[in-house]
Amino acid sequence: MTDFNTALDLYLRGDREGALRLWRMLADQGDVRAQYNLGVIYDQGEGVAADKPLAAAYYRAAAAQGFADAALNLALMLDGGDGVERDPQQAAHWFWVAAEAGNPQAQFQLGLKYDTGEGLPRDADQAARWYYRAAEAGEAHAASNLGRCFAMGEGVTRSDVDAFKWFAIAAELGAANAARYRERVARELGAEDRLRAGEAAERWLREFRARQS
After folding, report:
1. What residues have CB less than 8 Å from 50, skipping those under 6 apart?
2. Which member of 29, 62, 82, 185 lies 3.0 to 4.6 Å from 67 by CB, making a disulfide possible if both were Cys?
3. Contacting residues for 148 by C-beta, under 8 A, at least 6 apart
4. For a pLDDT cut of 70, what percent of the chain falls above it?
């Protein structure tokens, strides 16, 4: 019986034509992994000529079945007009599908849509909610944006302690400029609050790293 792994074995042995033929057959039968894999292959031009519209079609087929990575990739294509017509509203929809399935990058992007009002009505509460979910999963840019939400009181109760915490976390996770924002907020805090915020960030980072190990 032909299955995804049979095609994968062919691909790894160098028989790309045979693998693609089997994956196309499986994709036509609704196999979500084959649909996603073909989307990646045509998106990146791996062993074939890149074909962005075809990649988007395969991503859409897999995304319609709830495949989070396909929904994210389709959303990114639609959001950036990458080989397809730019459509922020459709991008927001597919970011939502991937975000609900637990994809941190999609959660961040959905928060950004609510934050900027591009593709969705502006909603500070929803922006902060999705930034928080993504930040809790270790998405650095979401942590930085959540820090800004606390610093400005956008969608959350204003708190320099929480702003410092999330900027500190974002800096450790690699977000550009987060350390500078943390120090800016630090100037608004007394010594005791700075210590409390720093300890909260360190505790979160320890727990996060323990979950990753």
Report:
1. 42, 43, 44, 83
2. 62
3. 154, 163, 181
4. 99
What burial class does residue 200 get, using C-beta atoms within 10 Å of its C-beta: 0-12 exposed, 13-18 middle, 19+ buried? middle
Q: How many CB atoms lie within 10 A of CB 191?
A: 7
Residues 200, 30: Cα–Cα separation, whole Å: 47
Cα separation of 211 and 184, whole Å?
30
Distance CA 125, CA 129 (A): 6
CA–chain centroid gap for 202, Å, is 24
Position 190, amino acid: G
CATH of domain 103-213: 1.25.40.10
Q: How confident is the model at residue 90 (pLDDT cuts 50, 70, 90)?
A: very high
Going from N- to C-terminal start, the domains of the chain cover: 103-213
10 vs 199: CA distance, rounded Å: 52
Q: Which residue has the tokens 């300890």?
A: 199
**Contacts of 167 by beta carbon, 8 Å cutoff, 6+ apart:** 143, 144, 147, 151, 178, 179, 181, 182, 185
Q: Which two tokens stand for residue 170?
A: 């974002």
